[in-house]
Amino acid sequence: MLAVYVIAPIFIFIVAMFIAAYCFVSLACKRKDAKKYVGVNMLGPSPRLKYQNEIAQSYQWVANMSCIPLQIMSKDGLKLYARLIEHDNAKGCVLLFHGFRSSPERDLNIMIPYLFGKGYSLLLCDMRAHGKSEGNYMTYGVYESDDCVLWAKLMAERFGDKLLYLYGTSMGAATVMFACGKDLPNSVSGVIADCGFTRPWDILIRSWKRKTKISPYPLMYFVWLLIRLICGYDLRISTQTALKNTNIPILFVHGQKDITILSHMTELNYAACGSLKKRLLLLSEGEHCTNFLIGDMKYFSTVDTLLEGE
Description:
By secondary structure, the protein is α/β, with parallel strands linked by helices. α1 packs across α9 (219-230) and α6 (142-159) crosses α7. An eight-stranded mixed beta sheet has the order 1-2-4-3-5-6-7-8, sandwiched between helices. It contains twelve helices and eight strands. It is 44% helix and 16% strand.
């Protein structure tokens, strides 16, 4: 009888933790209705709300362009979708990767016409579990980085020896950083990681702490286990490890007013990066995914420097 009194509470606690962990994973990782999160009028309390006109213009600019729909199959059998905007005299191609429950137009907005104006074709990728791409779960850049490599290889075949660049914001930044540790084509000549994080584990804990004063432990250990079981990856995998041995030129950017992902994470990524051609740009007025919207020309000049190979 004593064993029942001891085992029963432990069993109930474990079951409750797994239920709570499943709810957390559903909120933080599972696909949601794209219309709710992508539209210009659905920016909510985001710092980008004040820039909704610029974002709306970006959507319209892309809508007015001739986009070539492309599709690839991921390593785990998902159909992934992207749109290619080809420049007639392209210097190369910039592959664009958006953040959490978003889209290229929403997250990279004014940079899309800017980069096209610089003479580059653009690949606007719908990350897995977003837009027209298949998938039920986001993996915070882990499996998305494998998808990124596949897109880069497809663009390398299409553009030959022309230069390719990877450009990501937020989760897209984690994606391109993780990709730096993988088998990218030799034509990948630069990476831009804007407001990226270090580990999925870190950003999920950061998100929890922003929303509640309750300790994330021991719940996060159950979340870790559940994601291992459902998605098959480790939340503690780090972009720092992926960056350690890369020789690709990388521009790290972060806004120091970003409260979604702290700029300290980008500083850690920069410090871990093994590339001899790495740059760190911290913008004092930048908030999350707004660094190119705040009117600081240092952003554009530093991006230009990377594209020009200096």
